[in-house]
Each structure stands twice: as structure tokens, then as C-alpha cells.
Amino acid sequence: MTLPHTEGDDGSPEGPLPAPPTPLVPLGNNIFLFEPSVPSAAHDKISGSGSASGCPPPSLIILCTWLGGATTPRVAKYVEGYRKAFPDATLVLVRTVFADISARSFAAVRSRLRPARDAIIKALQPPPTTTRTTESGTTNPVIPQALLHIFSHGGCNTAIQLALSISEVAGTLLCDHLRQVVFDCCPGDTSFAKAFNAAILSLPATSSAPIRALGTAAVFAAVATVTALQKAGFMSSVNDMRRELNKPTLFGTAARRLYLFSRADRMVGPADVQSHAQLAREAGCEVGLVLFREAPHCALVTEDATKYWRAIQGCWMGESLPQLNGESKL
């Protein structure tokens, strides 16, 4: 068992999820793939974002979405944003589903993630003869590089199990090729109040007052039960997840880490994000932090899309990572 609460800025945690944004191709249960007509690894000249700094664009982008509220328009914002920023990259999208954090064992989750795992391994193993010519005329062998974007606790759980699944089959392949990890509204803490606030979003907003009251009581009881099981050690907790995310064997320490978070997030507090970022820095990771002020959970791009995408692209291109500049006490 994994995490206790549903997440997102709206939506039900159960039932069929909407169709993916085109042109993604379904690979399995809530797993989708986009492959450009000419993959970036096959290009013989550096192009697109990152070329000015001499840094080739990513060969692979992996998106692990949040739980609840991951509707087609919301997911499409990120798919389209990445396709615009890095048009030659392969993109793997994995949606987190309620069963992954409530009923499935870690082994069952990894089984569901096999199509994503196989697509990632394939994307990171190009033909050995592939080369890239820089603007100075130097020809170098292509080393595929990946960008991993994690949304909220649902995405954290998915990313952890996906990385472990890859390591079981391909050893350190992901760590060796991972250049950047984006932590979007994560990770938070084990607060009962925040877990309850997140879970309550699963209740239909249009319910009558009596039905909503009953639903609220049921959610309270469920969160309390899960919290008790976690404290007793029968379920994996958010603290376990936070530790796992900073293990050098999971994502390595070479990948640059970018934490994007909001002062207005009711589910993941800024102080919790900052403390995790500090632990990552102490573990040897290069860390950047970007604070948004008004955006709700997993909706940072709606507050300032330019700021959002500029931070992600700048991190990839090797620019100095952003810091809070005196805003550390939130």
C-alpha cells in the first residue's frame, strides 16, 4: 500500500480517466507515448531549446501526473508545453490512478508500469553509431538524456515505482541518463489536515448538503484509518516516500533538481518542499527552487506560464538554478 490521499484541483479519484491529448498513443493502462517523426537522438545538428548553450535538448521526457483532476485539458497543457519547448523529444506520459495508491501492491504497480518502463529503456538506448554535430563542427556520439517531471504525491509514487522497475531490468540506465528532475507541488508531509483537505476534493461539488456531510464524515474516517495504519507500519507513508526520493540509487545525484511550488497550496506546504530540497542539496544534488504565490495545487502554470516554462528550460540549458532570494521563511 502507498499513499493516503487523493490530489489535484478537482475531480474524482475513481472511474475511467478521459482520453489522452492527441497525438499521444496508448501503450497500456493510463500510459501514453509520443514519438516525433525524427527523434532528437537522430538529428545530426543541435537544434531547439538548449542549442545556444551547447546543451542538446532532451531525448526523452517522462511525465508522472497527479491523482485527481488530471483531466485532458490540464494534462494537455504540459504535453503541449513540452512539445513546444523540446519538439524532437520522445514523451512518455503516466497517469496515476486511485488503485495505485490505495489497493495495489508495489509489485502490482510495477506490473502496470511495464509498458512505460520498456518505452523508456528503448528511448535511452539509441543505435551506437548515432552522432551529433555541434555548431563548431565537432562530431560527438549521442548520449540520450532524460527529463523527469513529477506532479504531487501521486506522481512521486509512480516515479519511484517506475525507477525501481527500470533498475530491475536495466540497472543504472535511468540514473546514467537523467539530467533533470522537476518536482511540481511535491513532496509534502504527513499532516492529517493536509491529507484530509486533499481527500475531500474527491467529493462531488454539486452534492446536496446532507450527502456532502455524510461524504465528509466517510472521508474523515478513511484518512484517519490510513493514518493509523501508516503510524503502525502497515502502510508506506509520506515520510517513506520523501526518504526514497532522496536516495542516490533512485535518480542519482547528477540530475539537476527543480522544485516548483506555491504559497497558496493547501495540500503541500512550501516549508515541506524546502526541507526536502535542502536534504537533496546535502546529498549532493544541484537544486533550484521557484515559488508561485496564488496558484492552487498542481496548477502553477495557470498563474504564470512564462515563469514556469522559463524555469524548466533554463534548468535544462545549464543556467544558474533559481533560488528564493530572501523568501525562505514562508
* E-strand count: 10
Helix and strand succession?
EEEHEHHHEEEHHEHHHHEHEH
Give the name of the CATH architecture: 3-Layer(aba) Sandwich
The CATH H-level superfamily is Alpha/Beta hydrolase fold, catalytic domain
Main sheet, how many strands, which sense, barrel?
8 strands, mixed
Low-confidence stretches: 1-16, 41-52
Percentage of residues in strands? 15-25%
Quick one: CATH class?
Alpha Beta
For the record, give the distance between the C-alpha atoms at the N and C termini, rounded to a whole number: 32 Å
Q: Would you tell me which CATH topology applies?
A: Rossmann fold
The averaged pLDDT comes out at 79
The number of domains is: 1
**Share in helix:** 25-40%
Number of helices: 12
Protein name: DNA repair protein
Main location: membrane
Membrane topology: Single-pass membrane protein
Subcellular location: Endomembrane system; Nucleus membrane
Describe this structure in words.
The chain has one domain (25-316): Alpha/Beta hydrolase fold, catalytic domain (Rossmann fold). It has helices at 72-85, 98-102, 106-112, 114-123, 152-170, 173-177, 192-199, 209-231, 238-245, 248-251, 270-282, 305-316, and strands at residues 25-28, 31-34, 60-64, 90-94, 131-133, 139-141, 146-151, 178-184, 256-262, 287-292. The chain has an 8-stranded mixed sheet, sandwiched between helices. A two-stranded antiparallel sheet has the order 5-6. The chain is α/β, with parallel strands linked by helices. The chain is built from 12 helices and 10 strands. It is globular and about 70 Å long.
What's the topology here?
Layout lengths: L24 E4 L2 E4 L25 E5 L7 H14 L4 E5 L3 H5 L3 H7 L1 H10 L7 E3 L5 E3 L4 E6 H19 L2 H5 E7 L7 H8 L9 H23 L6 H8 L2 H4 L4 E7 L7 H13 L4 E6 L12 H12 L14
Parallel strand pairs: 3-4, 3-7, 7-8, 8-9, 9-10
Antiparallel strand pairs: 1-2, 2-4, 5-6
